[in-house]
Specification:
Elements: E1 47-48, E2 66-76, E3 84-94, E4 98-104, E5 109-115, E6 118-119, E7 121-125, E8 128-132, E9 142-151, E10 156-158, E11 165-171, E12 174-178, E13 197-198, E14 200-206, E15 211-214, E16 217-223, E17 229-234, E18 239-240, E19 246-249, E20 251-257, E21 263-269, H1 273-280, H2 283-294, E22 304-307, E23 321-324, H3 332-347, E24 353-354, H4 360-376, H5 383-401, H6 419-432, H7 434-447, E25 452-453, H8 455-466, H9 471-479
Parallel strand pairs: 1-4, 2-14, 22-23, 24-25
Antiparallel strand pairs: 2-3, 3-9, 4-8, 5-6, 5-9, 7-8, 10-11, 11-12, 13-18, 14-17, 15-19, 16-17, 20-21
Helix pairs in contact: 2-3, 3-4, 4-6, 5-6, 6-7, 7-8
């Protein structure tokens, strides 16, 4: 997600209702997507799966006791801001003997829940859907949960940081999704944590004249007897719930080709095709530029979804970045900053996922780093000058928003996770040199391609590639209360903390 705002942004969406904070669990988030709860012996008595993974930021997000293998979403779309019938099928495997388990599910009117075709008991507890199957589930058993409900496409929530409003984002003739950070639960029942990734099949039925699009590949389009159209998409690779995208509207698909024959599919509201073309057509060049630094693009396709909304910020939804129309109707420098930022996320944040929300600096810091680097060479501000400015404010940001790898929930998407985290990468490049830093970066997106990784994973890999222990250098940058000296810049000064 980019926080850079173009001069022509319009007013923000209205504030949504405040969130009631759930009771926090204790303990660290799981370090492996496939093992969200403590191991149990095959003969262990069935017990409840944990209602959350214990992430320090959102402790009740995600769930224990099972691993999702695939989501199948069936949406019978009607009209903007109009409730519609929906069903989510979750194919999963029990990682412990389960007497009951949770799905993250907020709002929406619940109808039925079945486990392996048999009616299950389901109780709502805040944002948790607590499901008790008719029979306990054995450890290692594959099982299928189907939840039917009436979906509410007006649901949004609000954050007082760069995210602002998230969830279902209305457009004049449909919707786009903004599920970051944990808004997927407003759209479908899920394991809503970035470490828990699974493929998604989208099956959306729309009225005549409307198009549905989702991340991944279009695998089917079938006209129904009543004139409605059923669209089927497959994400192709596992995707974190916060990176899922589904949009409905009067769209034109604009197809082109990127480096090495990569399919590029832009999805554009019909009346914005011509006015956004100038900057949309730069995508192939942006991909080529990033491939020189980070290696091959990590997915099978890419494209831009132009949002006909007043949405304040773009979002790196996997293989189909959501770009508000204002980003594409302003100046070229501003447009390219946002386009390169969201594209960079396809490598760092999407392909290389984060293990916990405290690792967000790895995602946003990298995206801002390459955004700034590209912009400097294409008419934008000096990278060094922006980093010197960030350095001067870094102690204040540490005081106000937490160190780069130690965010708190209200400050998760504040300035420190962007230019403040980019400064850590800039300091590392100054420490090891540009050539070694480049090798670290390529190794990072190669070794962890399609996986989740932590801050410590990055520190360890950087040390290995550089041939020196960098933990002592990076730890103060990532966790310290004070900003360390910047290598090779003894004249850089940190401003005193105010307040």
């Amino acid at each position: 997600m980019s926080t850079f705002r173009t001069p022509r942004r319009r007013a923000r969406l209205a504030l949504a209702a405040a969130i009631t904070v759930a009771a926090a669990l204790t303990g660290p988030v799981s370090q492996a997507a496939g093992s969200p709860s403590a191991p149990t012996s095959p003969s262990a008595a069935p017990s409840p799966g944990a209602p959350g993974l214990g992430d320090p930021i959102f402790p009740l997000d995600g769930n224990g006791g099972y691993q999702v293998n695939r989501y199948l979403l069936d949406f019978d779309w009607q009209a903007p801001r109009t409730p519609f019938e929906a069903a989510t099928t979750v194919k999963a495997t029990a990682t412990q003997a389960l007497s009951r388990f949770d799905l993250d599910f907020a709002g929406n009117t619940l109808h039925t829940v079945t486990v392996d075709g048999t009616t299950a008991t389901a109780v709502r507890d805040g944002d948790e859907l607590v499901i008790t199957p008719a029979k306990p589930l054995a450890k290692g058993k594959p099982f299928t949960v189907k939840v039917t409900y009436t979906a509410d496409p007006t649901q949004t929530r609000h954050r007082d940081d760069a995210i602002e409003d998230y969830g279902w984002i209305p457009t004049p003739d449909g919707t786009v999704l903004y599920p970051q950070p944990n808004g997927a639960k407003m759209i479908f029942p899920s394991n809503d944590h970035p470490s828990q990734r699974a493929p998604i099949t989208f099956r959306i039925t729309t009225p005549p004249g409307l198009t549905a699009v989702a991340g991944g590949a279009l695998t089917g389009r079938a006209e129904q007897a009543d004139g409605r159209v059923k669209w089927t998409y497959d994400s192709e690779q596992p995707v974190a719930t916060q990176l899922a995208q589904l949009a409905i509207g009067r769209f034109t698909f604009v197809d082109s080709t990127g480096p090495h024959g990569l399919p590029i599919r832009d999805v554009v509201p019909d009346d914005l095709v011509a006015s956004t073309e100038q900057y949309r057509k730069l995508t192939a060049d942006h991909i080529a530029w990033l491939e020189e630094r980070l290696g091959p693009y990590p997915f099978n396709r890419y494209g831009l979804l132009v949002g006909d909304t007043d949405l304040g910020v773009a979002l790196e939804t996997q293989t189909l970045s959501l770009i508000p129309k204002a980003d594409l109707l302003g100046d070229r420098v501003g447009a390219e900053r946002n386009l390169v930022h969201e594209l960079t996320h396809q490598w760092t944040g999407d392909s290389v996922g984060i293990k916990s929300w405290s690792d967000l600096w790895l995602s946003e810091g990298h995206a801002r780093f390459y955004e700034r680097l590209y912009s400097q060479a294409h008419g934008g501000d000096s990278f060094e000058a922006t980093m010197k400015t960030a350095y001067a404010s870094h102690d204040q940001w540490r005081h106000d928003y937490g160190a780069p790898a130690e965010p708190t929930e209200p400050n998760l998407f504040k300035r420190m996770r962007y230019d403040g985290s980019t400064l850590v990468l800039y300091a590392l490049r100054e420490k090891v040199g540009q050539e070694t830093f480049g090798r670290i970066e390529r190794a990072w997106v190669t070794e962890y391609r399609g996986k989740i990784a932590s801050t410590q994973d990055y520190v360890d890999l950087a040390s290995k590639v550089a041939g020196q222990d960098l933990d002592g250098f990076l730890h103060p940058w990532l966790y310290g209360a004070k900003t360390p000296p910047m290598p090779h810049h003894p004249d850089w000064v940190v401003n005193p903390v105010q307040g």
